[in-house]
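Checked the freezer inventory, then went back to the computational side. Two predictions to log before the end of the day. The first one is the construct we discussed on Monday; recording sequence and tokens without edits.
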Amino acid sequence: MHNNNYNLLRLLFAVAVIYSHSFELLGFPDPLERMSSAMSAGTIGVCGFFLLSGYLTAQSWSHEPLALAFLKKRALRLYPAFIVASALSVLVVGPLGASTQHYFAEWSPYKFVADLIGLRQPRTPAVFAGSPVQSVNGAMWTITFELRCYLLLTVLGLCGVVKRRWALLLLAVAVNVAAILGAPHQRGAEGLPLFGVSGFMIWFASMYLSGVCFYAFRERIPLRASLAAVAFIVFVAALFGPQSVLRAVTSTMGAYLILYCGQLQSSWLAKLRMRDDISYGLYLYGWPVMQLTAHWLPSIVPLVAFTCVTAMCIPLALASWRRIEAPALRLKRATVPRGNLALGRLR
């Protein structure tokens, strides 16, 4: 068991995404989004994933700064569970919600393989007619950006930027400024591209690099309850402000809150720490299970759907972790020097 709360935080982020989708796929706005008009609970969960991923993968690179070893670890973390979830989404969920009688005749296995390689959400023939989002697994769209952030960190590591933390900070600030200036006026919009880079990529990279910087400067960042309280108040206030302000606050105050909560030591938190990291499985299976629930029970209310879908996804996520993800992660050790085996599992 690790002496931190990162698995618990990832679990909360994944649950927040399911919560948000339970409203979205039933045709209702997320309550937080409706109140703040800025960010849904699911978006906060995704931001949390990228901030924490930047912190933990920067730690992974610092312990073994080898490009092939790093990319192998990242591939073992993302691909196995993604491939299985994609196959189940396309081959099981898709036919159950197909809007066409010729689903498999219209389905392209070539596009499916291409989507797997790029870690993109699978493309299928028409499904779930009448659904607000007609996709077998719309939650998967962020995973390809996670992969691109890993590649970005690899390039920065090879160029020596990761070792020069002030250069890293300048880069992170520049990307965050680009994300802030290109922030859309509406939540969910892509934002302005820059030099051919999509607005979404700039946004996700800004959060990821913020997490990397928080790791690089971790020894200079005081973790205090008073500062965490201030960060929380500022973050909540920013939810009711424009997108540009919210993005700036998320990548700074949000990152600080994650670092503080992740390292917080208390007896009651210790009891909640989990050996099994089921967050990825919850993220991958929450959408298709919710989509089927909304399809078969269109009159179900969002909170009931959220409770039922979360309960159904927990065993799926456990099976994904124990049968797919954990065995794949054990293969990481082949690339880790003996002295580093005790570092544990990193996202």
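The second is the one RB wanted added to the comparison set:
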Amino acid sequence: MKRSSQERPGDEVATRLVKTAIALFGEKGTSVSLREVQRKAGVLNEAAIRYYFGKREAFVEACIEDVAARFLVVTEQQWQTFSEKQSRRAVTVRDVSMVLVKSLYLFLLQDRASVWFMARMIREEGDFGQDLLIRYFGEFIWRLEAEIREVVPDKPRKLVRMHLFLAINSSLNGMVDQGLLWRLPDLDGNEGGFRLDFDEFAKGFIAYVSAGIEAK
């Protein structure tokens, strides 16, 4: 959602609509009606979304733009840590994988609904949703790809891209679907008892993603 440096009348309403939509889209899916978004946001004017954003597609794009702007702030700290490692030693695929996994996990802790919304855009909005994700998260994606190519220069570029996108999809949906893991019985067969602490989960996830990226 484009903003001028000068706050405009009505911007607070538009912002409230976007924040409410992200929460509802993440929780219930992108098929949530715009009327429900307006009602939940406490906006009485039924034409408000059309007034501020035009068509539904433009409104959904404003939501993705908002999510991406906040996500890229989270990634900056991870890239800074990555750069510090580069200054001390040769980085590895695992280091690149950590940027991806930790960025998504920290963002999940900050705003669960936004991560769910990102996953739903892939699953529920088809070409439209996937094109938006690539457009607004491309800065992060292409930097990941460039760093992987530096780390594994002999790997064919097509495989780098394919394995990176599989890693992104696995990481995003793994964050969203991890509740299924905690519903599994423990290793002795007791129902609802399987648990990993944070370090075990994070290390296992990073190892899984790294193995896929390293594969030739």
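For RB: The two ends are 40 Å apart (CA to CA). The mean pLDDT is 91. Let me know if you want it refolded.
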